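HUMAN: Quick job: go over this next protein and say how the chain folds.
***
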Amino acid sequence: MRPGKDLVMDGLRGSRRAAGSTAVGCVIVLLVVGCGAGGATPAPSLLASPVGTASTPTAPPPATATATLPPGTSPAVTAPAVTAPPGSPTGSPAAALPVRHIADVPYMRNLMPASAVGLEPGADVLLDIYAPDTGGPWPVVVWAPGGELKRSFGSTFGEELASRGAVVLLVDTAHGMTPDQPVLGAASRYSVEEASCAVRTARAVAPAYGGDPERVVWSGYSFGGVVGFELALADPDWEHMWTEYAATHPELGPTVECLTSGGSDRIDAIVTAGSGRAAEMWAGVYDSDPELRAFTGSVSHVGNNPSLVVRQVHGDPDPEQPFAVAQNLSRELVAAGYDATLTRVDLGGHAPFFPQVIELILGIVGSAGW
């Protein structure tokens, strides 16, 4: 299923139903570890002075009903709850902030064949920025779409989240990329390289839009989440590792040219919907090249970035990415000591779950230590 704009609008603007509505599904937290818990104006360059017009989005949606359950448990229990956004100690939603939108900002250039990613070699890859028009410093959220979707799929999400206190970058990803097209393994390198570029860009431009470059959350739907996990769990020396591997596998050379040089690509927290790790999602493909599978597994794996905060939302059943993909990753993260949760949406399908994702992000950035 490829949810369209009607699903987005229903989730963020039209969904004012009581918890448990069949349009969203019954939401259950399966695995929990607590380790601490407008109008668009084109931007001519990454570090240009903030421009754009202010707009006032709709009021935030009600929080999702959840229940906390022991690991591995699958009962069908919900309990109504309201998550208070940062700065709202009473639990009632804070007033929406005016938001500015900066559109079509180039942040990297594609080096892959057009047949692989839908972009000509040398073409700019773009992002949009949604930022509160006042206050700060705000946490920074990088969001990536899934599959062949464009960043515009998340425009309502970006505006809504920015109105609640975050600088949001919507980035395009490798449209239609699969691990065996055109070269086995290219998707893995593209994933980590484009995510790295997006995060370094976010940290570089954040101060110009009222953002805090030391608080970066990756969020993604479907393949957009895979991209984030590839970087969030990557070895700090991943770039050198890929360079050495490509010396004997020249078909796996650099896939993008980042327009931001230097800077940290660390992801502090990740919140995904309908996603998981590439190693499991594409296991059958990687089985044809054990050497490549071993290498990619050494580049990105559970154990790296141990302070990472992880929040997953996944429909069950999900016809595109089985729930077990997310569940297996969550169990592995929990066993390794990460602060990680998995929220199951009963009968949710393969959806972006924007209202739940927003509440999870706000829960992280409003917690102690953030």
Remarks:
- Confidence is low (pLDDT under 50) at residues 1-24, 31-93.
- The chain has one domain: 35-83+96-365.
- The first helix runs from residue 5 to 14.
- DSSP finds eleven helices and twelve strands in the chain.
